[in-house]
Amino acid sequence: MTFDSADQERLDLLKSKIGEYPNFPRDGILFKDIFTAFRDGKVCVATKHLMLNYIRKNHPSVEVVVGLDARGFLFSFMIASELEIGCVPVRKKGKLPGETTKVEYALEYGTDVFELQTDSIKAGQKVIIVDDLLATGGSLKAATELVRKAGGVVQECIVVLELQGLNGRKNLDVPVFSFIQYDDE
């Protein structure tokens, strides 16, 4: 994707502020921390504009933004409020009231369960899914399954950071866009 000069400056600012923490959460991992970048208010504004400009250009008819537990919530609410469309959370098991649809997904060390309120997406609604990070793709795949079970149409998954070395993109059957890519894990 080619960015205009203003968005390229925003992206460069965001990249420059991503924190790195060696050996977290375990030895041998260099953790890329988006929250370090968000300590700077200019980065918050830049990230908002990057995401909104991308979505306005590529998904002008989107009707619902789905954010993944928990960092995806930050982006989904911001996007939805700016576009004046719905915002729907996908949460870990037991965190949502009412009737929910569930999907179990694989983690490095076991499994987890994501839930979506059954009546939160209408059949045929155009949906984008947002999160901070694409690693192995398990959580985004589960969210995609949930949206489909609800009758929604996933247009794209959008993330800020992608760890390309983990090949998460190959586990997804929808388009994926990442603003920043890292080759290492």
Give a quick set of tags describing it.
185 residues, 32% helix, seven-stranded mixed sheet, alpha/beta, Rossmann fold, single chain, 34% strand
Residue share in helices?
A: 25-40%
Strands of the widest sheet, in order across it, are: 5-6-4-3-7-8-9
Shape: globular
The SSE order reads: HEEHHEHEEEEHEE
Tell me about the biggest sheet? 7 strands, mixed
CATH class: Alpha Beta
Class from helix and strand fractions: alpha/beta
CATH architecture: 3-Layer(aba) Sandwich
- The proportion of strand residues reads 25-35%
CATH-derived topology: Rossmann fold
Instruction: Calculate Rg over CA atoms.
Output: 16 Å
Pfam family, one: Pribosyltran
EC number: 2.4.2.7
Function: Catalyzes a salvage reaction resulting in the formation of AMP, that is energically less costly than de novo synthesis.
Enzyme class: transferase
Structural description of this entry:
With 185 residues, this protein is an alpha/beta fold. The protein has one domain (5-182): Rossmann fold (3-Layer(aba) Sandwich). The protein contains 5 helices and 9 strands; from the N terminus they run H-E-E-H-H-E-H-E-E-E-E-H-E-E. Helix 1 (5-17) crosses helix 3. The protein starts with a helix and ends with a strand. The mean pLDDT is 96.
